[in-house]
Amino acid sequence: MAVEYDLESDTQAEITEIRAFLETALGGDPSPDGTVFCQGMYVMSTRIAPDEERSTAELTGFTHRITVTFRFANLATPDVRDRNTALMVKSVIAFSERFGGSGLLLFNGERAVAQWTPDGLVFDSGWEDWTEVAAVIPLLAGHTMRALPQPFL
After folding, report:
1. N or C: which end of the chain has fewer CB within 10 A?
2. Options 1.20.120, 3.90.550, 3.40.30, 3.30.310; which CATH number does 3-146 get?
3. Residues paired with residue 50 on neighbouring β-strands, in sequence order
4. pLDDT at 55 (0 to 100)
5. Residue 48: its pLDDT value, please?
6. pTM of the model
7. Annotated domain spans of the chain
8. Which residues of 77-113 are buried (b: 16+ CB within 10 A; e: fewer)?
9. Low-confidence residues in the chain, pLDDT < 50
10. What is the β-pairing status of strands 144-146 and 120-124?
């Protein structure tokens, strides 16, 4: 099964700005459609059409306007997966700081593993990758860790 993390955000930023940000944050190779390729992972970003925005206010407290999907390669080595997990976390932290607002990072579209609001970024304390991937641990310093609500489970 493919491993995928979906960043959902209420940012009003243009998709071209988000794609340029991701290219820089990830240090990957961009394709003409805006996908950024890294060894063992690719990242796609899409703007939700205004008439298709999914209001998840009842569940998450914000309107879903942007999706960024981090898709991990099934055949990547454990070292590459760990490196990409750290790269994703670093990018999510930078995204929340750069674009603000509110958002979620979901594992395979269901499990909330990070959430941010104007009050700050919180990582789910029950998510093993945050505590077991050595390259991720220092990235979380200064961020709150606690059990997050799971509105999609």
Report:
1. N
2. 3.30.310
3. none
4. 59
5. 86
6. 0.94
7. 3-146
8. eeebbbbbbbbbbebbbebbeebebbbbbbbeeebbb
9. none
10. parallel
